[in-house]
Specification:
Layout: H1 4-20, E1 53-55, E2 59-60, E3 63-69, H2 75-88, E4 101-106, H3 111-125, E5 134-139, E6 148-150, E7 157-159, H4 161-172, E8 177-181, H5 183-186, H6 194-211, E9 214-219, H7 233-237, E10 240-249, E11 252-262, E12 268-274, E13 280-282, H8 288-316, H9 331-337, H10 346-358, E14 362-370, E15 376-382, H11 385-389, H12 398-412
Parallel strand pairs: 3-9, 3-10, 4-5, 4-8, 8-9
Antiparallel strand pairs: 1-2, 6-7, 10-11, 11-12, 12-13, 14-15
Helix pairs in contact: 2-3, 8-10, 8-12, 9-10, 10-12
Amino acid sequence: MSDSTEYYKEIDEGQDAFLRGDEPPPREPPKQEPLALIDAGDLDGLEPPPREWVVRSFLPRKVAVLLTGEGGVGKSMLALQLGECIRRGVPFLGRETIAGTTLIFSCEDDGEELHRRLHRIHKTVGTPRNPPGRLLFAPRVGTINALAVFDARTGLAEPTDAFRALEACAVEHRADLVVIDTTSQTFPGNENDRAAVTVYVNMMAGLAVQTNACVLLLAHPPKTGAEYSGSTSWTGTVRARCFLRSHDDEGTRRYFLKLAKANYSPEFEDELVRDDNGVMWLADKVPPSMADKINAYAQLAGHKRVFMSALDALTRQGRAISHANRASNYAPKVMLAAGLADGCTIKQLETAMEALFREEVIVAGAVVAKGKDRKPVCGIARKSRQEQAHDSGRTDSHEADALHDLNSLEEAA
C-alpha cells in the first residue's frame, strides 16, 4: 500500500462487504511465463553457431568463470593485465584475445591504486596509443557491494541496487569481460550454503548471457590448501574454474596458473614468471630482457645452494669461517681452498653469502665448535627453522631480495 490511509480504507471496505454477505470477486491466478522451448527438429541438419571467446580456449562468452588464489599471489593484478590485453587486442599469456571492453568492479582497491597498478603494467609493455578497446574501473571501496539479497524464508534472492548499477553499466558500455573483485565482498550469503551459492552464480551467469560477456569472479581459497572455499556449488555452477598459486623452490618464487575445470576447452597448468613490475609471462615465452634476469636469478639460486652445502661440510668438520673479507678464514676463500666451491668464483660466493644474510638463512657469530682449550669457536652458521619462525617484525620481501640479488649478480659478472 502507498500509505496507511489507503491501507485502512481497503480494510474497512472488506469488513463492510463481509458483514453484508457479499461474495468476493473471483481472483485471477498470476500469469505464468511459458517455458521457452527449442524443438530439436528445427535444428536437424543445421550447423551450430561457433563458440565465442573473450580469450580463446580459456574464457568463453556468456558464462561465469571463477578465479581463485591465495591473498597476495596477484589475482587482481593478473585480472588487470588481462583487461589491458583485451583493451589492446593482444595475446594474454600466449592465448588470443578479441579486442573489446573490460569492466572491473573493484571492491578492494580504489581508483588511485588501480592507476598505480596500470602504470606498472605500462612500464613493462608501454603505454598504448589509440587501442581498439577500453578498460573501465568501477572503484567500490567503502560502499555496500552485495549483488544479491536473500529471503531467509524462501531462499530466493533479489538483485540489489549495486547489481542493477553493474548490469546497466555493462550493457551501456558493451562490456566483453566483467571482473568482480571479489566474491567475499559481493556474495552476502554463507559460502557453504549450496542453494545460496547456486542462486548467486546463476545471477552472474545471467549477467554474462544478457551482455554476451564473460563474468570473471575473483575469490580466495581456504587456508587448508584447497583450490576454492565453501560449497562445491562454486565449482559445480561455474563453467570454468582457474587457480593461481605460487611457492618457493630453493630460493626462486614460482607461479602456476591452472585451468582446473573447463567445460568448453582443454584443461591446462602453465608456469608463469613475474617481472619487477608485477606483469606475468609464460615461463617459456618471456621477452629476452626478462629471460636474462630469470637466468641470472636461477644462477644465483645455484650459487646459494653451493655456499650452503660448503657451509654444512665445514661445520661438520668443526671449522669456523668468517664473513669478514680480511679474516684468514674468510668464508668464500676457505670454501675455494677446500675444494667445496663447485666451480663458483670467490665473487659469486660473496654475492651468494650476502643474499643469504639478507634472507636470514645464515648468521654470523654463532658457536660452531669448541677449541682445544674447550672455549667456543664462533663463525657463520645456518639459522635454524625455529629461529627463523620466531623472528619478530620480519615481512616477506622476496621480490625486493630478488631484485637486489639480480643487481648484485650483474655487478659480479
